[in-house]
User: Fold these one by one.
Assistant:
Number 1:
Amino acid sequence: MDYSLEFDPVNKFLKARFHGILTDQVLQTYYARSGEYVARNSARAAITDLSEITSIQISPATVRSMAAQAPAVTQPGFGRIIVAPSSFAFGLSRMFQILGDDTRPNFHVVRSLGEAWLLPGVVEPHFEPIDGK
């Protein structure tokens, strides 16, 4: 499995944790379905965790294309956080953030999950695995 999904029913956070090699296809497939995951779980925010990836095989063209698409979640005020510890993942995530800034408010890129929890003021997350595929 390329990513796993968890949900915190207390804080209403959806977390997608990517594993192994992150490719254009894996990222595009997740992005296309992420709106479904959010709606199914009534999430108020989503965290995309890139901490467990071993390699990134995403092209800048894919990042530009995805940023130009309509947001997967259109709810006003919906929180979006990408956890990107590596410099390359952080750079690609920031590129996506900058290019999609007009249509994705409340979007943040951080280096660690600890930083991610500070943004919405979550004290103790309570994630449970969910099946999203």
Number 2:
Amino acid sequence: MTQNLLDPGFELTLRPMRYPDFYERYRDAIKNTWTVEEVDLHSDVADLAKLSPDEQHLIGRLVAFFATGDSIVANNLVLTLYKHINSPEARLYLSRQLFEEAVHVQFYLTLLDTYLPDHDDRAAAFAAVENIPSIREKAEFCFKWMAAFDGTEEVDQLDRLETQADRRRFLLNLICFAACIEGLFFYGAFAYVYWFRSRGLLHGLATGTNWVFRDETMHMSFAFDVVDTVRKEEPELFDDQLQQQVTDMLREAVEAELQFARDLCGDGLPGMNTESMRQYLECVADQRLTRLGFAPVYGSENPFSFMELQGVQELTNFFERRPSAYQVAVEGTVDLDEDF
């Protein structure tokens, strides 16, 4: 009997390989290895002193969110995704992703230590979920949709995906993780970073964010591939009810991120304000819905020209210390006499 991707169990057989595309994603991820020690934040310290009080507030809130966001993602990887995606090829990729999330957490830890020299300020940032309402709201959104939740009340954590109802709940978890957290919350945060970069500021933050951006894009693409596979194997799960739930989820995510934008932007900064962020988030939400095969709901266009560059994964920015398309273990030879 053919086994589906979400069937309970713990498949161990890599040959014959049922999902070779997942294995190729794992191999691609290995090529894109970077370390926090490669990110030079020295020039950022001088830039921080140039910022206005409102811009310094924005940066403080931003790094506080970073400090908690990837930890939520990593916990969900271990407690839910690895447990229920029954493919050794997929679990190879998820293992690699967990390593990347750990690097991201280390990067954000280093950011906080560099940007917030005061011990009390750092402690408050690490406790952002408890003491910053706009970040707490985003965390509560994550816990609602990524925990076992049927829309009316919390239920027991999923142990095995025995029923269609179980698998729908798992899909909501996976889609929240990919489309809302990595695909919306982090994309919103990245926009603030690239706004500073477009002004020639915080080059170290932008360099590290480029590599995080690349990793997160790959994580999101893998998760959407899992959704595509489940859709092929169990199309009955993708009915009008699921579409409505996912649409509601994206709408809630946009509103939660807008609350964060109001906190960060206040009455508005030159080139960055809540209204432009709303348009950007709505544009991104529509992209996520379309990728999932659902109808877009906003029809907004991206107002940030500096974010258009980020669609190119081989981006090399003028301000960067090296190309953001960094890879390790590149095979072959280089002919220095060859024309480029």
Number 3:
Amino acid sequence: MNSQNSHELIVSGIHLELTPSLKTYVREKSERLFRHDERIVRLRVELECDAKQDVATRFTAKGHVNIHGPDLNATVQADECHKAVALLVDKLDRMLKERHQLLKSKRKHPHATEFEGVALPKAV
């Protein structure tokens, strides 16, 4: 299976009709996430419109990233649906970068290991 086809994108709308242009917009924006980390299994985006909310927080975009390891979840509110999607993708991208840096820093920092009662020095 090709690495680009191994991930899945699910877009759903809550109290919101998903137009083809909105689905295409979400797909185009989320490609940045899939290029960033190939270990993403599934990305689920939920778009919600609540008419009772204030105009500034009317649209809510929720993102759930299923990845090897702990999943990532993010929520963003905005006054326009496209703006909420853009902010959500930015937030998820930052979260993936932070997670990548954390794994990288753990791998690069050796620590002293106890071997049969004798502590070995750190590797240089």
